[in-house]
Amino acid sequence: MAKKYLNVTQEAGRNFVQRNISGNVVMLNLLKFKAVADYAQSPELAPAQPISGEEAYQKYIEHTLPFLKASGGEMLFYGEGGHFLIGPEEEYWEVAMLIRQKSVDSFLTFESNAAYQQGIGHRTAALKDSRLLPLVENLTIVQENED
Asked: Mean pLDDT over all residues of the chain?
């Protein structure tokens, strides 16, 4: 069985901070959902009736967006995924999402917000597997191509 990735490790978090990224950081999220959301770790958030993982993730987004916006972040893209055009044939992602934060510090402030953390159980209940890749825009290349 392939390893699943749902949370940041201490080492990955340290490496992210040590990159010393200045300015915007865009987070590429690749997501796979459970058929039925599992609220075992956060029973206080569980809806009265079972829901799908995707529905639970929508609850997570609804909870999260106000905190994201307050921290200077924004959702740039949320769309249906699928199999890679170039990449492992057996690998697929149900959803791809792009989130922009104005800085690493604003991202860390957002992530550590206690009120935000109260709803993170929806994410945990929803996801079967995920990837999170911090991206740094290369404005030099963008500007060169605009000329």
From this structure: 94
